[in-house]
Amino acid sequence: MKARQNGRGSNDAPHGCENESLSGRLLARLVPLNLRASGTEDGMTVVSARSSEWVRPVTQQDPASAIIEIDRVSQVFQTSARKDHVALSDISLRIEERAFVSILGPSGCGKSTLLYIVGGFVSPTSGAAKVKGQAIKGPGPDRGPVFQEFALFPWKTVLGNVMYGPRQQGIRAAEAEAQSRALIDMVGLKGYENFYPKELSGGMKQRVALARTLAYHPEVLLMDEPFGALDAHTRTRLQNDLLNIWERDRKTVLFVTHSVDEAVFLSDKVVMMSKSPGRIRQVIDIDLPRPRRRNELLLDPRYQKYVVDIERMFDESDEGGVPA
Amino acid sequence: MMSPAGMTKRAAPVLACIGLLVVWQVASLALKNDSFPTAMGAITAIPDILGDKESLVNILASLRRMAMGFGAAVLVSIPLGLLMGRSAAIAAFFNPLLMVIYPVPKAALMPIIMLWLGVGDIAKTLVIFLGVSLPVIYHSFEGAKAVEEKMLWSGAAMGLLPVQRLVRIVLPAALPEILTGCRTGLVLALITMITSEMIARQSGAGNILFNALDMGQYDTVFAMIIIVGAMGICLDAIFERVRARLVRWSEPQFDMPLSFS
């Protein structure tokens, strides 16, 4: 297992190209350097050994192929006049394009808060988060959330919910409907287009929520314990379906969970967090082959070792405890 | 084909009405009091009122004021309530004002309003407006406050601006609660309509009622009470139909059994 300590100040990572005023000639010289830098282990950024597969031809916008950069982010909530609750303390993290990254930790470690900061729903107390080199100032259609609570629009049918995003982006009704019907089919809800959310089970609602978010083509999926409210059976089925969908069209996914199995099963990289204050303990590359099939993976000793090792690490920590 | 239980359910309101009229008739015959006409007397007076052109004009004028007061109140109160529900600052500003106005019977303001605006339509419409506003504001406020944050975030991620989120997410999400407030408001509109006409005697259904009372035409008084009551039932039934259509998506799938059987 390649577990590396995630040092402070991962902003030491190459970011020469964030400066957009750099001339093309200078960029051309810098790009190969950056590529090498992210490929070598500089101890600061954690790059999956297989990340080279996902590095697309380097463009000027994302020379290091990091789509999300979180730089020394802290979040303090004022719980009472005297006491502050430090939800996140000095978090730095780089997320590669097209990677499936899970944030794993016990409840109260601020993992959802971190996701909300990337979503632009919450502003950090200090530090900065960037998406594609741009500072995050608010929510945007480039980052699509999927919440544990589904948050569907109950006055809209399944089709109405899925069409909402495309329609908002000005896509013509007929075209939006055709796309949405295809997505509803993809998440396995063909025939339920005209149902209202109240008529659906929890698992079906989460399928609709996923389709609704995919419908406006976000570059990053932000999933906030999406299967946390579902029963074990439904949960497993949705994990399988999510992997199938993701392996077809790899988007960057930031996936918050407190389930070790789920994190290892789905992810390329697991970010382990500890609580009070919320910090990154470790970032672990999950080097398991894809496409992953549940029945094969559960028998795979490498998978089992990841799960056991991560659970042991949570056990050893006196602050975190085992995530449920 | 209807089951016996279903037929009983259908017939129950009719039976209740007939029962009430029978009790009324018997009590009136027993008491032999001039100011308590028989049910038959009151009912036979209804066609006289509805057949009289002047009375009809008066009743329609009342309904027009009621519609205007109710409509204006709804148009102002829903946006205000929604804003209060989503903005702590706006709520903090308006809440104390509303708390002061809330317990005051709106009809009690009528004399002052008459002093300022006269006894005409404007004063009466204003009183109806005040009577309807508070429940609609309150329910819109509660409805907007209860809207799930994540739903608004989902909308924001799709690119909806704050004003669009208020109109296109908060408003529909709070609609069931808003319409509950409007239903209360509708009944209050009818009540304030009659009381305003009782104080500012000039025209309207309330005026007919209290003029008849002054002249000792008790069967007309009771006939007017029946007419006003029937208007209330009809308006409420129409509103309930509209409401049920608008928020079909939020109703429970199966009706809860109301009986103990």
UniProtKB/TrEMBL annotation, chain B:
Pfam family of the protein (one): BPD_transp_1
Instruction: Keyword check for Isomerase, yes or no.
Output: no
Q: Which positions, given as ranges, span the membrane?
A: 66-85, 97-116, 220-239
Q: How does it sit in the membrane?
A: Multi-pass membrane protein
InterPro entries annotated for this entry?
MetI-like, MetI-like_sf
Superkingdom assignment? Bacteria
Q: Where in the cell is it found?
A: Cell membrane
Keyword flag Transmembrane: yes
Regarding protein family, the annotation reads: Belongs to the binding-protein-dependent transport system permease family.
- Spell out the protein name for this chain: ABC transporter permease
Which organism was this protein described from?
Bradyrhizobium agreste
Task: Provide the taxonomic classification.
Answer: Bacteria, Pseudomonadati, Pseudomonadota, Alphaproteobacteria, Hyphomicrobiales
